[in-house]
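Researcher: Please translate sequence to structure tokens.
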Amino acid sequence: MEQQQSPWLLIIVAIIGFVVLFKLLGYLARRKRLIEKYGRDLGLRILSGTVWQGMTSEELLDSRGVPIDKDQTLYKTKINETWKYKQTGKNRFKERIYLENGIVVGWKD
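Model: Translation complete:
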């Protein structure tokens, strides 16, 4: 005797397939955009979420996204910023990235 498969199972599998395909297409589009913008080596480095000293604020935005919070201190000759990611509590963050005049100078995990 043949067993009849539930149509719900097929619907669930199809939905999961579409979600995976959608995420893959989004990843490939982002990869293409970053490589076109920065070149292959730098684009792939940014795509991986890496942070390095000398990275620009634009590269950091493309790598990590918009920070949850920012602090900024203005001096006569420079601007110091702290970009905060991965909030764990009120004014508590797992990651802080320090910029001077729009260039990454350090970070704290």
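Researcher: Any highlights?
Model: The chain has a mean pLDDT of 93.
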